[in-house]
Amino acid sequence: METRCCLGCMKSFHPRPQCPDQKYCSSRSCQQARKRRWHRHKLKTDSAYRENQKAAQQRWSGLHPGYWRDYRAAHADYVARNREQQRQRDHASHLAKMDASIGETSIPSGRYRLTPVQTSDLAKMDAWTVNISVISTVCAHTP
Ligand SMILES: [Zn+2]
Predict the structure, then answer these.
(1) Which protein residues have their CB within 5 A of the ion that is ligand 1?
(2) Could you give the count of Cα atoms lying within 13 Å of 139 in the half-sphere of its Cβ?
(3) What is the pTM of this model?
(4) How far is the CA of 41 from the centre of ligand 1 (A)?
(5) Alpha-carbon distance 134 to 110, whole Å?
(6) Tell me, what's the pLDDT at 106?
(7) How many Å lie between the centroid of ligand 1 and the Cα of residue 32?
(8) What are phi and psi of 3, to 5 degrees?
(9) Residues in Cβ contact with 9 at an 8 Å cutoff, skipping those fewer than 6 apart
(10) Quick check: 77 and 71 in contact, CB under 8 A?
(11) Is residue 134 very low, low, confident or very high in pLDDT (cuts 50, 70, 90)?
């Protein structure tokens, strides 16, 4: 039986035979993460989906005027958490821009194969020139 690494929890799981491309385990939180990711991807890439979502939200808001204003007024913890999450997103975005501006890329954890690049004076070199190719990404936990 095949074992894969879940993109949500990074634990290994057995994909269902009905889902040959399964990338997330069947836990509730990982399935929610998968759906959120799909939704965000769809909003970014599918203008018809984006317009449809916007129209549905506007219809709902029209039927429930003041809902979010009242909700925020009654849930100070929600407002504070949102504010903190936005602050972290702004900070992460700022860091990502800094990384890009100085040309740094982060290499994800995983197993890599180092293959020496053939050069005419390999024996004289005190450092290797290598190609790095991904064998697999790290799976933090096994069941
Ligand atoms: Zn999972």
Answers:
(1) 6, 8-9, 25, 27, 30
(2) 15
(3) 0.52
(4) 19
(5) 7
(6) 59
(7) 10
(8) -120, 135
(9) 25, 27, 29, 30, 141
(10) no
(11) confident
User: Quick check: helix, strand or coil at residue 93?
Assistant: helix
At 45-71, the pLDDT tens digits run 999 999 999 999 999 999 999 999 999
For the record, the structure tokens of 16 come out as 């269902």
Per the structure block, which two tokens stand in for 110?
């995983």
What is the average per-residue pLDDT within 118-132?
62
Q: Which helix (H) or strand (E) holds 116?
A: strand 110-116
Q: Coil, strand, or helix at residue 72?
A: helix
| Crossing angle for the helix pair 67-74 and 76-101, to the nearest 10 degrees | 100
Residue linked to tokens 């929890």: 9
Residue whose token pair is 């317009």: 51
8 A C-beta contact, residue 54 and residue 43: no
Q: How far apart are the first and last CA of the chain?
A: 14
Q: Ligand 1 centre and the CA of 19: distance in Å?
A: 15
Position 98 pLDDT exceeds 60: yes
